[in-house]
Design a protein that fits this description.
By secondary structure, the protein is an alpha+beta fold. The protein has 2 domains: about 5-80, Roll (Ubiquitin-like (UB roll)), CATH 3.10.20; about 90-155, [2Fe-2S]-binding domain (DNA polymerase, domain 1, Orthogonal Bundle). It has 5 helices and 5 strands; from the N terminus they run E-E-H-E-E-E-H-H-H-H. The protein has a 5-stranded mixed sheet, with helices on both faces. The longest helix is centred in the last third of the chain and has 14 residues, at about 105-120.
């Protein structure tokens, strides 16, 4: 049986240290050890995007990342999008445009959308759909999610 390691990383701007098994999945470390339950596990195979976070500047499926691979990394989870009590513009837009129904895919969608807008501040609809393509939703049909991202890109208030 492997021994635990001290995992040091920065999560949502805060330095964190936690003892974990090296091959524990990052999604489990976030949810169970760090109590950041916004990140969801859907498929556990990197196919659905519910566990999407930003790691060292790029989005990843945290269900596929062994904890040891995150040593020293900078992570952004859905909890880190808001500023204090003020929701991120995307969070407000998802609410305003009804971009979340069951909400299970929403954290991953929000991280993917934030990443897209960071890289491409004025995407067209095709670019938005491509940017969100790693995230599956079974409830909304994507139209309202795309509308929400488009509204933020266009600077329209939620």
């Amino acid at each position: 049986m492997a021994e635990k390691i001290l995992l040091r990383l920065t999560v949502n701007g805060e330095p964190r240290a936690v003892e974990v098994f090296p091959m524990a999945r990052l999604v489990d470390v976030l949810r169970e050890d760090l109590k950041l339950t916004g990140t969801k596990e859907g498929c556990g195979e990197g196919e659905c995007g519910a566990c999407t976070i930003r790691m060292d500047g790029r989005i990843v499926n945290s269900c596929l990342i062994p904890a040891i691979q995150a040593q020293g990394s900078v992570l952004l989870t859905v909890e880190g999008l808001a500023t204090g009590e003020e929701p991120h513009a995307l969070q407000s837009a998802f609410h305003h445009h009804n971009g979340a129904q069951c909400g299970f895919c929403t954290p991953g969608m929000l991280i993917a959308a934030e990443d897209l807008l960071r890289r491409c501040p004025n995407p067209d609809e095709a670019q938005i759909r491509e940017g969100l393509s790693g995230n599956l939703c079974r409830c909304t049909g994507y139209v309202k999610i795309v509308d929400a991202v488009k509204a933020v890109a266009e600077g329209r208030p939620a």
